[in-house]
Fold each of these.
Amino acid sequence: MTLEEKAGQLVQYFDFGGATVAGADTTGVDLETAIAKGDVGAMLFVTDPARINELQRIAVTKTRLKIPLLFGFDVIHGLRTIMPVPIGVAASWDPDIAEKGQAVAAAEARAVGIHWTFAPMVDITLDPRWGRMVEGAGEDPVLGSAMAAAQVRGFQGKAIGEPGHVIAGPKHFVGYGASLGGRDYDEVDLSENQLRNTYLPPFKAAIDAGAGNIMSAYMGLNGVPAAANHWLLTEILRKEWGFKGFVVSDANGVNSLEPQGMAVDQKQAAVRALEAGMDLAMSVPSGPSPMLGLVDAVRKGELDEQVLDDAVRRLLEAKFRMGLFENPYVDPAKAAKVLEDPEHRRVARLAAERSAVLLTNDAGLLPLDRKALKSIAVLGPLAASGQDTLGPWVFPANGPKAISILEGLRTKLGDGAKVEYATGVAWPTRKNRSFFDDINKPEPRLPVDEKVEFAKALDLVKSSDVTVMVLGEPQNMEGESASRSDLSLPGEQQKLLEAAIATGKPVVVVLMGVRPFNLGDARPGALLEAWYPGSEGGTAVANLLVGDAVPGGKLPFSWIGSAAQAPYTYSFLPSHQPAGADTRYWNEDNSPTWPFGYGLSYTSFAYDDVKVDRAAIKRGEAVTVSFVLRNTGARVGDEVAQLYLHQRTGTSSRPVRQLKKFARVTLKPGESRRMQFTLSAEDLRYWSDATKSWIQDRSTFDIWVGGNSQAQATTRFAVVE
Ligand code: NOJ
């Protein structure tokens, strides 16, 4: 390969298909000419099979070496069939459904010609102001790692190149979720203690599960932008973890090294990125990719050609493994069949049912008594909007559709009850424009005469047996570039909620959106968190409301009481004043409204007889904790049994509690089961900043098992030598 051909392999360009996108000047490069010249190795954002073939044909017929292009895309929670948003799936605490959902996403993506997805997003965050919380698995490294590995298995199948699967690219390496103030793209400073014990484990789990790619983050980590961070991309990723796949920058992440003060020009940006361990630069083609400057850099001795060769080899290997040299094209005729596979909708419905979390259910209002119910009021613009039900990271061009909650209820209740609807409030408006408002073109928001609608909604509440209000945030109010500085319900929703409750009629609130909304003193009869439930959202929510499905999800983050409490984790370090744990603010509690791991069911569970198989073990040995879980209610239901650990003393101070194990099980009424979890030496080890190493201490360890992070059933064991 010539130097030019090598550099070209490291270039990835967007193709917006001629669309004008705010902040993205796409006029600088003529894509087809660049591909024909061999200046492009990969593409993103092309999802039309005909267009994929067209661009591929240029690469494999017009260039000297006929190297096919690799097509990547943000298949975050589905392409045509949309699963609940990733944090919703994490709330299922069911890695199996996460794997199945992403296998569906992979099948659809591969069918249209996509080879690689920029997912799973495995960023831990303790800060729900950060809009991208929706894409991850929440605050916990153990739950996050399980979800990361499951999604990689779903996307990739057994090995890279398996038919109907795509390469997985966990992102954003690393620390993006800890941005200052929860502001998207802001800087991040994390100690090695936090990185190694909390933020890195989900990435490690994704790589151990075989992920073929990793995407670096935008921001500076401890002052060094992730795209040029040698410690991250080479020391940890390749040397410690043995990662063999390719690394891609986030969009314009290599270009941005110049404004970030790491390079004097684009050529130097590319050199610094490559030397740090970057392979491929993802860029909006507003000008030639910085990677093309590597030709000159090698010629002038500014970059060792070996570094370039290594990067190129990794890209070519991905293409070989995906079988692109044998089969560069996709068959558009087959795509339609895969995209409409009814099995995909079934998985989406199941995932939505399993992800819902029941937060309150006063006096057993839910499930609704279908026989007694004659009229039901459905309120809120989100209730009737299929588009919002899908959540962010969904593109109209791929034809996704969702059953809205209103439709779901109408279908479910049939002629049995009168279902009437009022929007009640207007759509919230945003202060700052987002890139996603352009590329993700929301349906036009119809103007609402709020005064008229508000009154109409209240009349409906009064004249109906029960009201279901769907409250939350519209599709693009969460996700990238959608941080918020407060956690209240946007617009007039809170006012409508309070007015509805004040009528004295029963009110069920279904939350759409993933922020821990602060509902003030408003206490609806029941509160069901549905996240953005995806294509089958309306069907799933209707099933849950009438009891054809039973909520069994649990919160994957602490539901803080206000934005002022962020960042927050249940897994904090004991302070010098442990008894005063709730006295840290003058004006409010510092404990959350609902703890991490919390969620109710239509039945109830009890934990008894927790014990360990050995009270004392040696370092390196395992200990097994067992307990009896019993369904004490009158319905079949799921419980997520959780095991938390606390190490009393050590080389470092250890968190008050840490999730170590969990299992979601289904029990019939009255059924009990002895369950067990085995803690290995790996589970007891941690990174200490005192020794700058992984260690396992001798100490006493407290164990709790239960249905959330405030579990009470307890036992202990000791590591004695
Ligand atoms: C920027 C986002 O940070 C990243 O998650 C995404 O994959 C790329 N844009 C491509 O859309």
Amino acid sequence: MVGIESLAFYTPGYYLDLTTLAEERGVDPGKYLIGIGQEKMGLLPPDEDVVTMGAHAAHYALKDVDLSTIDTLMFATESGVDQSKAAAIYVHQLLGLPSTTKAFEIKQACCGSTAALQMALALVHQKPNKRVLIVASDVARYGFGSSGEPTQGAGAIAMVISSTPKILEFDPESGSYTEDVMDFWRPNYMDEALVDGKYSIKVYLRALSESWKQYHEESGRTYNDFARLCFHLPFTRMADKAHTHLARVSGNREVAPNALAARHGASLAYNRVTGNSYTASLYVGLTSLLETSDEDLTGSRVGMFSYGSGCMATFFSGVVMEGYRSAMDARRHHEMLQTRRELTYRQYEHFYRFRLPIDGSDCNTPRYTAGWFRLAGVKDHKRIYEKVVKDEPSGTLTHTEMVV
Ligand code: COA
């Protein structure tokens, strides 16, 4: 038995309401709220990056875990902070992991986290007394005023994979699909992703049918074996399109829209208000499903579809463990979302335009973070991270330098 022992997620303490963006862009808010299915987008302040977000999530995922059992830390991201050094090494240091823990970074767009998961499952099968920490952390950035702009967001997840899962046990079968396409990419000289959104939806759906086909052949399971489904969520409306497509290609054309929504609806609640978090997105969806579903999901089989543009995709599944609710951190996640600060449009623009120096000069970043870690600045070309000393021992958010 191998699966998820603990699961935590993080999104920064700031967001822009998409009705505010719609007003500025002269767009009917219904397009963002209904057509795209997003209400708010999480925004990264200047003193946070994928390392600080990932470290915060991992801090909570590890709270009841013996650190000496962590064999490997895999960090999945497509918003890397260095061409050579893995973000995992910074997290390893910030969390005080043992020097015997291997730490490295994995990339294949939004699917890197699932590639890490597949490796983690094999590793834990090989060494059942060891654990793997997976961190997936990303900032979704698109051109200012572009069609991708309302699908921005930021967030991280951390999960401990072990032979003593408390949340979800994975089935051994999976189906994958790889194809060289240019639907979404970010060249080294750009801070924003380039995306052909409509084309990407088509490739996503093709990758879904192909990976489903292989999964179905390997496992013999059919659509009706899944009590719930989670899809990669570049925007939550994508789940409706994906689920309708899956029902059709698996020979279930007659499933009514409300029956589809009943199987994936609870997985959308968090992503609707955090926005896209690339590698983390599918697992933020899983967290949302397990924490916001009214029903007890014990014993339910959850089908999961991970898509990484470019592209690689995997369909896989797992079964929810008895007692999973007490292993989740629903109250803290809910509080984190409730205590975020809403930005004005001008404040959003200020965050969006902030850049660390690109000429090699030193800098100190202003203090904004709502998390336990911050990027204090850059000195001699080196990123300097620090632990945050909170004003309140409860970890209540502090926003000390709102300059705009
Ligand atoms: N009320 C309700 N719905 C509305 C509306 C309104 N007033 N106005 C438009 N809509 C609907 C449209 O009908 C459309 O629905 P459909 O998808 O069912 O056809 C939807 O809103 C989006 O409108 P569209 O004109 O297609 O939007 P767009 O050209 O601005 O593109 C995305 C939307 C999502 C494709 C774009 O934001 C994007 O590319 N985002 C990035 C996605 C990504 O990262 N993909 C790669 C990784 S998987």
Amino acid sequence: MTENEILDIFRKHSALLEGHFVLTSGLHSDRYIQCALVLQHPATAEALCAQLASKLGNLGATVVAAPALGGVIVSYEVARALGVRSLFTERQDGVMTLRRGFTIAPGEPTLVVEDVVTTGGSTRETITAVEQAGGNVVGVGSLIDRSGGKVDLGVPRSALVTLDVKSYNPADCPLCKSGTPVVKPGSRSKR
Ligand code: ZN
């Protein structure tokens, strides 16, 4: 699938909205992405994640990890395509941690995946959690990179679609200045 074909899938499922949105961070943006609306369809999730897995398969990972909740399905389907384990991290007292008895072998090559990379914040936290568990992060993947490719996580990174989505402080938001009504979507997939 090309980037445009993937974007058409997102639009078809109302997972990519264009307009004027207030994000959970409080910033305003002209586009809003909710991957869960695409990932609710297992066959589509499987196909998208298989394509992401094909970009990351040469890194030799034997486990895939993702931050819950947004990354769980992506991790699971990428791991399925690669024939490896899928783990997730979650916050405990605000700190991203591997729980539930999940273990990573010392030095085990690990992929960290996400649905959307915006600032890379939750991906970075997951990388730290994997490293603290003894894993060696060999690459990072996401369905969507909305940083325009600018986020640098210090390891090879792939995304199916790269978008350069601007976000604005409300005080400087050109959409506010133009008088466009602002929409607050139900919840956001990524911080
Ligand atoms: Zn605005």
